[in-house]
Every structure is written in structure tokens, then in C-alpha cells.
Amino acid sequence: MAELASTLPATPPRFFPKSLTPWLLSAPGAIFFLMLLGMPLLMTLVLSFNNFDYAEGIIATFSLANYMEVVQDDYFHEIFFRTYVISIAVVVLCIAIGVPEAYILSRMRSPWRSLFLVVTLTPLLISVVVRTLGWVLLIGGNGLLGKTLEGLGIADASAGNLMYTHTGIILALVHVLVPFMVISVWAALQKLDPSVEHAALSLGASHTTVFRRVVVPQIMPGILSGSLIVFALAASAFATPAILGGRRIKVAATAAYDEYLNTMNWPLGASIAVILLIANVVVVMSYNRMMERRFRRTLG
Amino acid sequence: MQNNGKLALCFHTLFVIFLMAPLVVVMLVAFTPNGYISYPTDGFSLRWFRAILENRSFVQAFWNSLYLGIGAASVSAVLAVPAALAIARYQFRGREALVSLFLSPLMIPHVVLGVAFLSFFSRIGVYGSFYALVAAHVIIIMPYTMRLVMASVFGMDRRVEQAALSLGASQWTVFRRVTMPIILPGVAGGWILAFTTSFDELSMTIFVASPSTATLPVQMYNHIAHTIDPLITSVSTVLIVLTALLVLILDRIYGLDKVLIGKG
């Protein structure tokens, strides 16, 4: 999203100097967004400062009680800690799997390359619920993984039961999010000049050395932006942790859901949501800063 | 173009298996003749596909999702085309801010949008209504529509429009007969991408859908939370096949790599 904003041409040619036209053209969308995005977010922020009582419901006051509860309660510490540990693990695995795969894809011959690119991207458009259901069938109590492990004599069938475990959630999230990493790295690879690789090879470097010392440094921005997308989506994922973790392994998104729809403590749920949002925005912003600095350094 | 080594192809094969395994497993179980989760080792059966049609709530949820997707994608296209034209063609104050505003839903976790819409809609008394759902989905899918429409507006050759203007066509005629046909693939691609995103959305919708406006993903999630049976796998299989068909269409009219990766 930040990349797009920075690629706008600095001064587009003027059709009619100083006309009202651009305002009129963008007004419907802008008003729609300010009303239907601005208002609800503002209301949530206000709600997070309200109090809640099981007998009286929401009490309209201004207090930091909800935030204090989230900050001080070990229960919420555990939930947020878990959310970010899972997200970091997912990012690391997505890099380990997605970067080599994007490189392999880019080196494929013509018909295969577009075929496997479509194979990699199509799951992105298939519902997360369906993809997570697939993982339930694979790693569930009587799943294929357990049966395979037992059949091969590697381990007991119960070793393949990863339902309600961190491993299961991480595995399924990597599956859901790895296409984003492949996309980012793929886009960065397209800008590479193949003659640099040829030069390294002709000077006697091995394929592994070329990948490590020539290719990876050049596609670093792609890896970073992929990591950012994967991290942000993993930290706010709902369906996968909800289905594979249930009530036993709660993350921030499922905790907010429970406060809203089960406990009905909306102010507390709102404060969890606000923290989740701020954390997301901070990660995105600091990433943009970092990229700007990198960019400036390479130019200077 | 060099070939990949053996090790690379091995890695690639494992990657494709990892990506496809969950989907293949779901589709296999859907054809089981048994009443429980099992692989169709003793014959294929379509009984679980027939069972979908007898299940009122899944059929209702499917239509809800379809109308919702069509409605939200169309509204987002109608809002995105003029806004993209303004952003691409004019220099005005707040232009950058406008781009950030339209792309901002990408930065907000869907669960956060869900709780925000839940309190907002119940406050103004439209909670659970279909039109409230459409409005919420327009916000979520707008970045996708906007991106594709903007890319095609930036990419078009302005001289064609200038030629039409100089030959005496009115502004509106130029838009209708010249601009629109040229950017149509981008708009259509954006529409389909927006539609699939809306059709599959769960994390936000689960907060704002009432039982009568529950979408297919919401209905499926509630079903899975309750029980996992072959019925849910046959519903998923239908969804996988429909999505694959849409992807095929999207690939034909715009190019899937261009839609999802940007200028490749």
C-alpha cells in the first residue's frame, strides 16, 4: 500500500487547471469512507474507555480501566505474547519456504512457470475456512498425518494429532500466508538483471553462493515487504486459530471475539481491538521508515 | 533461462504437495459413501452433494453471499472509477491522503473492523441488515478494486482521449466511448477480485451478520465449530470448484499474476 502511494507520478498533467472536478469525482468514495470507516473506528475508541458491569451493562465514563486490565492481567499477557510468538514463527517459516520457492519459480521454463504461479496463487482466493478445514482433516485426531506416521512406523498415530497445539496453528497459518511471501519475492525477482548472476557464475561461484551472495541481497526489499504482510495477517488471523485452537489456545483476535459475543463485555473487547490495531499500524509504519532509510542510504 | 537442479525440483514438489494437500483431502472426503469422515476407499458417492440441497441454511447462506458479493463489488466499482480518475489525472490538495484513505482497510485487522461495525450498526439500529453488510464489505474490498482500477487508468494512453476531444466529442461521450472501454479489463478484474474477497470474508462478517443474513463462510464456521461431517467437505468442494472457475476467468480477462502481484 505504501509502495503504491510512492509510485504516483509527482505532477500529473492538468486537464482543467484549478477545477472542482477532482473533488466532485472523489467525493462519493471519500464521504462513504469517512462515514462508514471513520465513525465506527472512532466509536470503538470511545467504547474502549467506557466501563462495563455485568448487571448494568456498558457505563459511559472515561477511564483507563480496560487498558489497565489488559496490561496487568497475566491472562491477556499470555494471549498477546502467544499471538506475536506465533506470528514471528509463521514469518520465519514463510521466508524459509517462500523465498526459495519464488526463486525456483522464476527459473522455470515458460509454460511451467505460469502454471505453477497460478497453482501457488489460487489458494489465496479460496476461503480460509475451507483451507483450515483441510488441515483439521490432515492433523486432526483421526487425520491423515497420524495414519501416515503410523503406517510408516515412524511414530504413534497420536503424534500426528496436532489439534489444539501451537504447531498445528503455525503449520496452517504458514499454508494460508506463504503465497503472500512468494508474491512479494517474485515481484522483486522480476527487477533482477540476470547478467549479474551470469557474471558471478562465470567467475566460478556455485549456484548456492550466487543465490546467497548475489540474489538474496537484491531481493531483500521483497523479503521484507512479504514478511510485513505475513506478520500483520498472522497477528490478526481469526479463522485458523479459532478452528484449530478453539477455546484452549486463544490469540488476540479470538479473545476480542469472545469478549464481544460470549462475555458481552464490549468495552474490554474494544480495548483489545484498539491495541491490536495500534500494534499493526506501528509495525507497518516502522517498516516504511526502515525502507525509507535503506533507500536513502543506497542512493547516498 | 537455466533449469533448476534436482534438489530445487524436489523442494518445489514438496511445496506443491504442501499447498495442495489440504484442498485435495477436503475434496476426497466429500465423495465418501459413509456417514462419517472417511476416504472414499469403497466406492464414490454423491450423497453429500445431494445433502447440501436439502440443507436450508447452507443454500440460504450461499444466496446471501452471492448477492452480498455482487452488491458490494458493484458499489465499490462505482465509487472507485471516478475516484481513480481524479487521483490519476489531477493534482489537488489531499490527493495522497485520499489514496491512503482508500487503501487504509488493508492495514486494519478484519476483527477490529468487525467489532467497530458491530457497535456502529447496533447504535444506528441497522445491525444484521443486508444493506449494512454490503456497506461493511464495500469498505473491506475497496482497496482491491481501487488498486486495479488505478493501475489501468495510469496505464492508458491519454492521446486517444485527446484525439476524441479534438474531434468534437463531449467529455461524457469520451468517458463512455473511449475511456471506459479501455479501462474495462482493469475494472472487471477489480470487480472479480473484490467479489471473491467479499464472498470469502469471515473475520469481519461474523460480527455483523445475523442468523438470517449469515454468509456461507459464517455458516460454515458455525457448522465446523459444532461438528465436522462429510457435509461440510462437500460444501467446501463446491466452493473450491467455483473459486477455481472464477480464477480461470480472472486469468483470462486480466492475468492472475497482474491482479495479485501488480505489474510483473
Summarize the structure.
The complex is a heterodimer of chains A (300) and B (264). Chain A is built from 14 helices and two strands. With 300 residues, chain A is an all-alpha fold.
Explain how this protein is built.
- Chain A is mostly helical.
- Chain A has a single domain (65-299), classed as Orthogonal Bundle (MetI-like fold).
- Chain A is built from 14 helices and two strands; from the N terminus they run ααββαααααααααααα.
- Chain A has a two-stranded antiparallel ribbon with strand order 1-2.
- In chain A, α3 (65-72) crosses α4 (74-106) and α3 packs across α14.
- Chain B has a single domain (56-261), classed as MetI-like fold (Orthogonal Bundle), CATH 1.10.3720.
- By secondary structure, chain B is an all-alpha fold.
- The chains are: A mainly alpha (300), B mainly alpha (264).
- Chains A and B meet through α2, α4, α5, α6 and α8 of A and α1, α3, α4, α5 and α6 of B.
- Chain B: It is a multi-pass membrane protein.
- Chain B: It is found in: Cell inner membrane; Cell membrane.
- Chain B: It comes from Franzmannia pantelleriensis.
